[in-house]
């Protein structure tokens, strides 16, 4: 596998080690139902998990983003974090939160996410 400087600068690839799990999904096919927002896989930058709080079977993650990205993160808008389409709940300055339900925690890498992790962030192309 090869990665160029731009990829290394914008993604969390430099944090990976052998055995790191990633989220993969088949590409959208023409005519298929869209169940979230459009995710291209073009990472805009990193978000850092700064806090997490269990809420029943779900977990609320609080993430900090670079100020250059904050204009594109809006309440009830969409983001892709590590390739997972999610809804932004609340934004305050350069911190926002997402609530990840049990099913998503079980079938994605979010079940292993922890404070201090850096996740790939893709802003909503329609934002």
From TrEMBL:
BP GO annotations: riboflavin biosynthetic process
Lumazine-binding domain location: 1-37, 38-127
The UniProt record lists the keyword Nuclease: no
Database matches in Pfam families: Lum_binding
Domain of life, source organism: Bacteria
SUPFAM superfamilies linked to this entry: Riboflavin synthase domain-like
Residue stretches of each Lumazine-binding repeat: 1-37, 38-127
Enzyme Commission no: 2.5.1.9
Alphabetical list of InterPro entries matching this protein: ATP_synth_asu-like_sf, Lumazine-bd, Lumazine-bd_dom, Riboflavin_synthase-like_b-brl
Keyword terms of this UniProt record: Repeat, Riboflavin biosynthesis, Transferase
Reaction equations catalysed: 2 6,7-dimethyl-8-(1-D-ribityl)lumazine + H(+) = 5-amino-6-(D-ribitylamino)uracil + riboflavin
Recorded GO MF terms: riboflavin synthase activity
Pathway as given in its UniProt record: Cofactor biosynthesis; riboflavin biosynthesis; riboflavin from 2-hydroxy-3-oxobutyl phosphate and 5-amino-6-(D-ribitylamino)uracil: step 2/2
PANTHER family per the UniProt record, alphabetical: RIBOFLAVIN SYNTHASE (PTHR21098:SF12), RIBOFLAVIN SYNTHASE ALPHA CHAIN (PTHR21098)
Function of the molecule: Catalyzes the dismutation of two molecules of 6,7-dimethyl-8-ribityllumazine, resulting in the formation of riboflavin and 5-amino-6-(D-ribitylamino)uracil.
Protein name: Riboflavin synthase
Organism name: Bartonella sp. B39296
Gene: ribC
């Amino acid at each position: 596998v090869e990665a160029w400087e731009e990829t290394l600068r914008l993604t969390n690839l430099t944090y990976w080690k052998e055995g790191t799990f990633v989220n993969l999904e088949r590409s959208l096919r023409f005519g298929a139902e869209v169940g979230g927002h459009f995710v291209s896989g073009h990472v805009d930058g990193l978000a850092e998990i700064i806090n997490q709080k269990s809420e029943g079977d779900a977990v609320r993650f609080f993430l900090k983003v670079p100020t250059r990205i904050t204009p594109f993160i809006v309440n009830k808008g969409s983001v892709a974090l590590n390739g997972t389409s999610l809804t932004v709940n609340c934004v305050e300055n350069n911190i926002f939160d997402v609530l990840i339900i049990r099913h998503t925690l079980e079938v994605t890498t979010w079940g292993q996410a922890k404070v201090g992790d850096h996740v790939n962030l893709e802003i909503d192309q329609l934002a």
